[in-house]
Amino acid sequence: MIQIIKKSEQFNDVIFGGRFFANKPVFNGNEQTKPYSNLFYWSNGYVTEPCEFGLHPHEGFEIMTFIFEGSNEHYDTATQTWTSLNAGDFQIIQSNSGIKHQERIAKGTRAFQIWFDPNFYEAIKLEPSYTDYHGKNFQPKEENGISILTYVGKESTAKTLTPNLTIKKLTFDTQTKIDFPLNDSMSYTFYVLNGKGFANNQAIEKDDAIRIVNTDKINIDFQGELFYIETPTVLEYKPIWM
């Protein structure tokens, strides 16, 4: 099954008096975007003026933030330090038994924040942790004319609690048509960071999401950037939202 979820069909939100815009391809409470596998929440945020999320708590979830444009300053109660993330960087918070954090986001920032359930009821027994990963330490590989950057997975040094998780960015510098291989026991969401083209002959453009399950390949005819998450279709534990 391949489903295109247009930006207008996602959960769209505006906060901080119009300074922060977000569209959410995974969001609980919306039938089109409901959580699946271990993927609970996914927000694509744009910041038009500086804004700040004050100190607030999390527990159990593994929370990842990917910076594509701009910058983000972050404080948390595990490290008790302010750190900066710039375009190309990402962070992983293992909130586990409980952590509080705070974020200051610069004008012009575009970022994903994505929440996973790594087995919530086991995670809350563990100490929380927070790790920054910097883009300079993650180099893409060329394959079939596609630049493939692995954030999380077998070829990455990033450490995660969420089992069998892969996160990658695909860059198509020129219009490229390819049958991209998938694992039919896994579920996927592809997100169009920028560019346009076709996925299985269906038109896709910036901020569209593509959900895929029970499929061993997808035909892509595209120029631009695609970000994707691969998770098991069937988990060995019951996610918290079930």
Strand content: over 45%
Class by SSE composition: mainly beta
**Quaternary state of the chains:** single chain
What would you report as the Rg, rounded to the nearest angstrom? Answer: 17 Å
Q: What can be said about the biggest beta sheet?
A: 8 strands, antiparallel
Helix content: under 10%
Low-confidence stretches: none
Shape: globular
Counted by DSSP, the helix tally is 1
Overall pLDDT confidence: 95
SSE string: EEEEEEEEEEEHEEEEEEEE
Number of strand segments = 19
Distance between the termini: 22 Å
Report what the structure shows.
With 242 residues, this protein is an all-beta fold. 2% of the residues lie in helices and 58% in strands. It has one helix at residues 120-123, and strands at 2-5, 11-15, 20-26, 39-47, 51-58, 62-69, 71-76, 81-86, 90-94, 99-105, 110-116, 129-133, 141-143, 146-152, 166-181, 186-199, 202-205, 209-212, 217-232. The strands form 3 sheets. Strands 1, 13, 14, 15, 16, 17, 18 and 19 form an 8-stranded antiparallel β-sheet that branches. The protein has a 7-stranded antiparallel β-sheet with strand order 2-3-4-11-6-9-12, with no helix packed on it.
For the structure shown, list the relevant keywords:
242 residues, seven-stranded antiparallel beta sheet
